[in-house]
Amino acid sequence: MSGFSPGARKFFAVVWLTGSSLAGCGPAMEPDAPDEAVGTGAQPLTEGAPLTVHDASCLQLQDQNTWSSAAAFMADVGPALGLPAVLQDLNRAGPMLTASTHPPATGYKGGFRWNDGDMGTSEWIPQALTAGVSGSTNTAIVSWHYALTSPDKGVRISVADISDMSASAVNYRHLLLVRPTSAGNFTAVAEHGGGLAWFGNYLYLADTSDGLRVFDLTQIRQVDTSTACETTLGKNGTVWCAYGYKYVLPQVSAYVMPASLTSPCRTKFSFLGKDTRGTVPAVLSGEYCNNGDTPCPYDGNTPGLGGRLYRWPVDAATNRLKTVGGAVKPERAYLMNEPNVQGVAPIMTTTATTSYWLSSTRYGGALFKVSTGASRKAYLSGSSQWPRMPEGMHATGSGTNLWTVTEGVTGVTAPALGGRVVFFVDQAAVD
């Protein structure tokens, strides 16, 4: 992919954006960032510039509050299974990457590739990554977008046991995400699957146009895997099917933007991240923007740079988003000043919530360290510092490892050359 040299900077002017939807003083300044300027109105957007604090006071999400009814709809499908049960039934093996097969990445420590079928399939494409601990098992969860249209199978996730990265392979299994529609029935989740964030028993999924979908990892159900089920979804006679997958993970609720919200207040949920820094944990969400077919409302004359990054507060006691009067407001928002962003992770070596890593397909693949106080630091695929086509990320709370997944270059299966991989680097090496 063509682009500017790593140190180059292009200066652009952005048009003045007006309208009542932009009114308001925005979120209060956080104690760790007293000198930040809030970006409202005309702003010169510069690629690689520090994050610009953005007034997001017009934006909110509303809880669809289907927590109880969704779980009740799945009761007839079978007993609820937790994630630990699935982790005892992993059926695929992804070989570990070696010195000769891993992609270039600054601070590389380890990783794995998928099995041969998953490396080469054109039906499913990896997108997002999150991680955590289930029982005593360190677990990575990766989402895959279904690339075909008839039928649209929606989104599947892979749960992988990453407890022992010195073994010869990582064991994993795919599950299909579903949305309950009525008692004893469900449908596919027709989304891109571009973002995941795991809090407690809840898995948050980016809903590009509307907000966040929430799935309950204690509500996994086993379904039929007979030949008749390979082309069927939902109830089929006396059994339930999921296109041949053995397990389904059901949606239990969603946080959506009111229909009355319009651009530029209305945003896109392209990718997600998990941030446990500060006094309030947060789901991070951001917009993918480029200078071609996917501009963003704040781009103006600076295509691709106006993508916004939001912090959505999480109630640490319930692991649900914090609501006030039935609405969730972002506690913080930024203009990223970066194009083609695909993922985000917090800089865990600081308690301040003003610095992040951004995963981008700019320059064919890049990792950007960004903050409100300094211009970005870039690790580029063209300089053998980062792999091609990086997507979602997860930073371990200990400040040790930064995990990421790659989408894979079309037609390439060799992991060192752009094939699909999951790997981690030393956070300190890219800090």
UniProtKB/TrEMBL annotation:
From which domain of life does this come?
Bacteria
Report keywords, A-Z. Answer: Signal
Residue segments, region Disordered: 27-46
Leader sequence segment: 1-23
Q: What is the name of the protein in this document?
A: Secreted protein
